[in-house]
Write a structure and sequence with these properties.
With 383 residues, the protein is mostly helical. The protein is 61% helix and 9% strand. It contains 11 helices and 7 strands. It has a 3-stranded antiparallel beta sheet with strand order 4-3-7, with no helix packed on it. Strands 1-2 form a two-stranded antiparallel ribbon. Strands 5-6 form a two-stranded antiparallel sheet. Helix 1 crosses helix 10 and helix 10 packs antiparallel against helix 11. 22% of the residues are buried.
Length: 383
């Protein structure tokens, strides 16, 4: 029984209805996000602390697809939803810094940086505009590239990087906050369902509500993943399998909402999950497993070839888990943003062409968004 037919029989009508609503919200939200990105830099009244001029007063900034794409898929110190009339709307996150040369710990909101346009307490958020300014002040490209976007650095009175001050960043970025939210949602969901089972609901009577929604996923993991691969010992690994499945699924689904973080598209996140799975596999092995590795059941003449291959396979399997989840989730987000960005790229060439290409771009975006919904479930299952 495949995953898609199994789910569709139970949720086809409901999921299609919800999916269409989500897609409409996503498309128009992305439209406004990128509309704001196109207008960003036209002048919002902030004073540049280094030159004394108003930001955006000199020239109108053209739409930069690279900046928008990487601004979405990379981590940040705020949730940015959209920009309207040169005002940015989002949720600023707490900044927690430790700088021994600046008095130790510093606590404040990321809103104090005004989207990277101002310094606060001798610290600054690195943006592409700030890096361009450094180039104009005589910094080499190598020096500028050493400052990563969204990184917080110490600056002097002139707003230039202070290399004598070491900054340790413990801030709650949007990836961290979203993982916390995903964990809280997972715990709340599972404890609520477990309490209903403890009362007999779903055991003596039919499951209801959220229990009715989650139970098919639990039985799917049990019947299609655990039992066929783990045999009679499947119960021992069910808590881990269900935790991994639902945690990845929740983060994948939340990541489809415009303005949120693409946590599962972060290689650090998938690296930690892969390392945990690697340790679980090694700690659960037996002599039969290692016997197959160092004495594979093949003719003696090819054993010396197969042994290195099997040993290498111990490490390539978790690496495949790490790369597969990361690559699939980040690729989908980049494709969606690229399709929307084409509207503004063509619009920079000719306004009529930009408007004319809009229906095509949005149609492809909706199509890819449907695929991303499937990928969100599929990648949780595959991992």
């Amino acid at each position: 029984m495949g995953l898609l037919p199994y789910l569709c029989r139970k949720f086809q009508v409901d999921m299609i209805g919800r999916g269409v609503k989500c897609l409409m919200v996503a498309v128009f939200s992305l439209f406004f996000i990128h509309s704001g990105a196109q207008k960003k830099g036209q002048g919002n009244g902030h004073i540049d602390t280094e030159s004394g001029q108003k930001m955006g007063e000199e020239t109108t900034k053209k739409f930069d697809a690279n900046e928008v794409i990487f601004g979405h898929v990379l981590d940040a110190h705020q949730f940015h939803f959209f920009t309207y009339r040169n005002h940015h709307y989002g949720i600023p996150l707490p900044v927690i810094l430790y700088a021994p040369e600046r008095g130790g710990f510093q606590f404040f909101s990321s809103q104090k940086f005004h989207d990277g346009e101002e310094a606060y307490k001798g610290f600054r958020l690195v943006t592409q505009e700030y890096k361009d300014r450094l180039l104009k002040k005589g910094y080499t490209e190598t020096e500028v590239k050493s400052f990563q976007n969204e990184k917080i650095i110490a600056v002097d009175e002139k707003g230039l990087p202070d290399k004598t001050t070491k900054v340790y960043d413990f801030s709650l970025t949007r990836n961290v906050v979203q993982m916390m939210l995903g964990m809280i949602l997972l715990v709340w969901l599972m404890l609520g369902i477990a309490a209903k089972y403890a009362k007999g609901q779903g055991v003596k009577t039919a499951p209801k509500g959220m229990q009715n929604l989650i139970e098919p996923f639990i039985t799917f993991v049990r019947d299609e993943v655990a039992r066929p691969n783990l045999g009679h010992k499947y119960r021992k690994f069910m808590p881990y399998l269900l935790t991994i499945f639902f945690f990845i699924l929740i983060l994948n689904v939340i990541g489809l909402v415009p303005g949120t973080a693409n946590v599962t598209g972060n290689i650090t996140f998938t690296l930690v999950l892969g390392m945990i799975s690697f340790l679980v596999i090694l700690l659960s092995t037996n002599k039969h497993y290692w016997g197959h590795i160092f004495n594979p059941p093949v003719p003696g003449g090819v054993k010396f070839i197969m042994i290195p291959v099997e040993v290498l396979g111990i490490f390539t399997k978790p690496i495949a888990l790490i790369v597969r989840l990361f690559a699939n989730m980040i690729a989908g987000h980049i494709i969606i943003i690229c399709l929307i960005s084409l509207i503004f790229i063509f619009g920079n060439l000719n306004t009529a062409v930009g408007w004319g290409f809009s229906p095509i771009s949005i149609a492809f975006t909706v199509f890819i968004y449907f695929i991303e919904i499937l990928v969100a479930f599929l990648q949780a299952y595959i991992f």
